[in-house]
Amino acid sequence: MNQRIRSTTKAFAATAIAALAIAVAPVIGQPAHATESPATISAKVVTKVVNVSANKYGTQSYRPVGKLTAGGNPIKGKRIHLQKRASGRWMSVTSCVTNRYGKCAVIVTPKVSRYYRWKFAGDANRRADVSASFYLRKRVSGLDYTYANGEKVYNATSANDRDCGEIPAYKKPVRINNSSDPWALDRDNDGYGCE
Questions:
Q1: 48 φ, ψ to 5°?
Q2: Residue 6, exposed/middle/buried by CB under 10 A (0-12, 13-18, 19+)?
C-alpha cells in the first residue's frame, strides 16, 4: 500500500514539474530584443541646411539644423555637435541643445569649403549616431561694384569687363566692394575707382 502511494506521489510530482516547465519555457525562450535594455535603443540624427537671411546674418553664412530622434520620436534636451572634416578627420565646431521638436540650429560661416555633419555622442539610454555629411561652400557676396548713382554690379568677370573710359561720368566714382577688384578700376587701392 505504501509503495503504491509513493509511486502515485512520484508520478504526480513528475507531471507537475513537466507542466511548470511548459509554462515557463516561453518566458525563458523569448528573444533578447523583447527585453532590450534602454542602453541599446538607437538614436538617429538627421540634418537640414538652409541659407540664412542676408539682412540678419550676412550673405556668407549658413544655418545647419540638426534633428535628433529615437523610434521616430523627437528627443528633447540633448546636446548634438556640429563637426567639420579637416585633414582627414572630424572635429567639433560648435554644439547646441535640442528643443521639444528634437531640433537645434547654429550659424556657420565657412572660411574654407568643406564637409560637415551632426553628431550625437550617445548617453546612458541611447547609442551614438551621426548624420549624413553635407557640403558647405565658402560663400562670397557677389557684389563687386557700386556706381555713384547707386547701381550695383554683381559677379564681375573678365567676360563683362569695363574700363573707366566706358563708364559714364554720372556713375563715377565707382565703389569697390570686392577687394579683388576684378575690373582693376581702383589703381590707388583706396576703395574707389575711376576718380
A1: -140, 140
A2: exposed
30 vs 32: CA distance, rounded Å: 6
The Cα-based distances of 106 to 46, 119, 164, 173 in angstroms read: 14, 14, 43, 39
The beta strand positions in the chain, using DSSP E, are 44-51, 62-70, 73-74, 79-86, 89-97, 103-105, 114-120, 129-130, 134-136, 143-146, 152-154, 174-176, 192-193
How many angstroms separate the CA atoms of 153 and 71, rounded?
51
Q: Which residues contact 95 (CB under 8 A, 6 or more apart)?
A: 79, 80, 81, 82, 106
At 124-166, the pLDDT tens digits run 888 899 999 988 877 666 678 889 998 888 777 766 788 899 9
Q: What is the sign, positive or negative, of the torsion defined by CA atoms of 109, 110, 115, 119?
A: negative
Instruction: Work out the average pLDDT over 165-173.
Output: 92
Question: Among 28-42, 120-134, 136-150, 179-193, which stretch is predicted with the lowest mean pLDDT?
Answer: 28-42
Q: Are 101 and 46 in contact (CB under 8 A)?
A: no
For residue 147, give the C-alpha cell: 556706381
* Gap between the Cα atoms of 29 and 18, Å rounded: 16
> In 3-state terms, what secondary structure has residue 78?
coil
Q: Range with the lowest mean pLDDT among 2-16, 34-48, 142-156? A: 2-16
